Q: What sequence folds into this?
């Protein structure tokens, strides 16, 4: 796709996301999205066949961003001698700096209950994050910077699950001090 096409596609996604935040997925129509994007229906349908396709593209984009952010973060952690301390501190600080959390992501997650395709995206997103973190744990063990008693796959799954729980809680309680949970995350990496 050309850069103009990518720009137009992103314009539609941004407009749809804004509209979904105001009205929710179920109340939104393609006409609403076209109006919000300031584009004709023909232009919008050139890129997306349906509202569900737009929601799916937004959801995939959010998971890809999460994975990319995690990979970037873990790459910086490769030189850390105190891997567990730096990992916990930086991940939790990153969470607290991203306030307020994107309520659209929360709404997307509830859609996984109704749409099997979204459930697949959710599962694949979690598995990708877990895989990245498990690989980082294994590499840290090989460098001698993480206890060999840590089981990389299980610990990564548990770690990601806890982080996602904090994200959900931060959407409800934005004043929550995530750094207070640091000792609990450290226990996983002992």
A:
């Amino acid at each position: 796709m050309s850069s103009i096409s990518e720009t137009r596609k992103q314009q539609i996604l941004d407009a749809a996301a804004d509209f979904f935040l105001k009205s929710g997925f179920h109340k939104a129509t393609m006409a609403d999205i076209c109006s919000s994007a300031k584009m004709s229906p023909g232009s919008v349908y050139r890129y997306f066949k349906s509202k569900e396709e737009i929601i799916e593209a937004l959801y995939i984009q959010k998971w890809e961003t999460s994975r990319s952010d995690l990979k970037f973060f873990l790459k910086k952690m490769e030189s850390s001698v105190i891997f567990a301390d730096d990992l916990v501190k930086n991940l939790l600080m990153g969470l607290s700096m991203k306030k307020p959390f994107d309520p659209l992501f929360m709404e997307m997650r509830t859609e996984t209950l109704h749409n099997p395709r979204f459930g697949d995206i959710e599962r694949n997103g979690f598995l990708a994050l877990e895989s990245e973190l498990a690989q980082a744990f294994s590499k840290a063990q090989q460098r001698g910077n993480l206890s060999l008693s840590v089981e990389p796959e299980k610990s990564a799954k548990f770690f990601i699950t806890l982080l996602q729980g904090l994200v959900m809680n931060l959407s409800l309680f934005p004043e929550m001090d995530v750094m207070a949970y640091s000792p609990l995350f450290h226990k996983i990496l002992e």
